TrEMBL record:
It catalyses: Hydrolysis of alkylated DNA, releasing 3-methyladenine, 3-methylguanine, 7-methylguanine and 7-methyladenine. The keyword Hydrolase applies. Belongs to the DNA glycosylase MPG family. This is DNA-3-methyladenine glycosylase II. Keywords: DNA damage, DNA repair, Hydrolase. Its EC number is 3.2.2.21. Pfam families: Pur_DNA_glyco. It comes from the Eukaryota. Hydrolysis of the deoxyribose N-glycosidic bond to excise 3-methyladenine, and 7-methylguanine from the damaged DNA polymer formed by alkylation lesions.
C-alpha cells in the first residue's frame, strides 16, 4: 500500500495492483540499458527502495521504486484508492478540462501518471527513500493477494524494443477494476499454468 502524507497531515492510501519490472543493464527497454547512468536515472542505481520519478511527454510524471540489481526498478502502474478519494479527485480534476465528468474511484489511479496526480507525487520526490521518508512510504497490505491471482503480461508502451517488449514483466491482479490495461491472452495463460500447478501432486 502506497501512502502519501499531505501538507495538512491527512493521508492518501492506494493498494498497488499493477507494476512493471525493468531489469537494468541488460534490459533494452530500461532507462538504465547498457548500465548507462545519467542525471535523470541516478535513482535506479541507488539502494533498493529509492524513489525514481521521471517526466513523460514533458508534462506528466511516473513513479518507480529502485529494486535489487544494478540499475533495476519497478514502475508503479495502478493503485486501488483506499483512503482520501475526495482529495484524489480534486488533485486529478486540477489537471482535467473544466466541466469534465467526475471520475469514478476506479479511474483515479489507473495509470502511472494518474496515480502521481492523484497522490500529488512531485518531481522532487526523486531519489528519496521510501523506507524513511515522512511524506511517502509503503505499508504492508493487510490482505495480500495469492500468487495465483497475479497475471504476468508484456509491458506497455515499449513496442520499439523488439524482443524486450515481449518479456512478461508487467504484473497485475487478475480481474481488478483498477488495472490500466487487461491482457486476456496473458490471463488465459496464467489460469492454465495455475490450474496445472494446483493439480500437480
Amino acid at each position: 500500500v502506497l501512502v502519501r502524507r499531505c501538507a495538512d497531515g491527512s493521508e492518501l492510501r492506494g493498494r498497488i495492483v499493477e507494476t512493471e519490472a525493468y531489469l537494468g543493464g541488460e534490459d533494452k527497454a530500461s532507462h538504465s540499458a547498457g548500465g548507462k547512468r545519467t542525471e535523470r536515472n541516478t535513482a535506479m542505481f541507488m539502494k533498493p527502495g529509492t524513489i525514481y520519478v521521471y517526466p513523460i511527454y514533458g508534462i506528466y510524471l511516473c513513479m518507480n521504486v529502485s529494486s535489487e540489481g544494478e540499475g533495476a526498478a519497478v514502475l508503479l502502474r495502478s493503485l486501488e484508492p483506499l483512503q482520501g478519494q475526495s482529495a484524489m479527485r480534486k488533485l486529478r480534476a486540477a489537471r482535467r478540462q473544466e466541466g469534465a465528468r467526475q471520475l469514478k474511484d476506479k479511474e483515479l489511479c489507473n495509470g502511472p501518471s494518474k496515480l502521481c496526480q492523484a497522490l500529488n507525487i512531485p518531481r522532487c520526490f526523486d531519489r528519496r527513500d521510501l523506507a524513511s521518508d515522512p511524506e511517502v512510504w509503503l505499508e504492508a497490505d493487510e490482505s495480500p493477494p495469492k500468487p495465483q491471482d497475479i497475471v504476468s503480461a508484456p509491458r506497455i508502451g515499449i513496442e520499439s524494443h523488439g524482443e524486450w517488449a515481449k518479456k512478461p514483466w508487467r504484473f497485475y491482479l487478475c480481474g481488478h477494476p483498477c488495472v490500466s490495461v487487461v491482457n486476456k491472452e496473458a490471463e488465459r495463460r496464467s489460469l492454465s499454468v495455475n490450474t496445472a500447478d494446483s493439480s500437480d501432486p
